[in-house]
């Protein structure tokens, strides 16, 4: 079985001194390196942006009028007795 190696590349990052000091302090308290903190922060930002893109694309395909019709329709059958939650007395 061959071992997969993680491929990494180096990127010289310039940060304002105050921001670097804040990152240094937070990563020190978290027990991680500055590099690990920045890598995680970039990954989280990319994830948030991709999630926003996903929902924007899905929203563009939505049939808003069909959704409104569903929301306006009368309810169906009442819940079965076994589906009801007991209310505390």
Quick synopsis:
The protein has helices at residues 17-30, 34-60, 64-72. The chain is mainly α and 89 residues long. The protein has a domain at 17-73.
Q: Which series of helices and strands comes N to C?
A: HHH
Characterize the largest beta sheet: strand count, sense, and whether it forms a barrel: none
Total strands: the figure is 0
What share of residues is helical?
Answer: 55-70%
Distance between the termini: 63 Å
Low-confidence stretches: none
Shape: elongated
Radius of gyration: 25 Å
| Mean pLDDT rating | 90
Enumerate how many helices there are, as a single number: 3
Overall SS class: mainly alpha
Q: In what range is the share of β-strand residues? A: under 5%
Tell me about this structure:
The structure is a single chain. The chain is an all-alpha fold. It has 3 helices and no strands. Helix 1 packs across helix 2 (34-60).
């Amino acid at each position: 079985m061959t071992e997969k190696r993680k491929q990494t590349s180096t990127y010289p990052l310039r940060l304002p001194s105050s921001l670097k000091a804040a990152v240094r302090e937070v990563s020190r308290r978290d027990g991680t390196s500055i590099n690990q903190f920045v890598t995680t922060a970039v990954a989280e930002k990319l994830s948030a942006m991709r999630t926003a893109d996903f929902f924007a694309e899905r929203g563009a395909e939505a049939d808003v009028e069909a959704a409104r019709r569903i929301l306006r329709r009368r309810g169906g059958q009442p819940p079965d007795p076994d589906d009801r939650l007991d209310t505390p007395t």
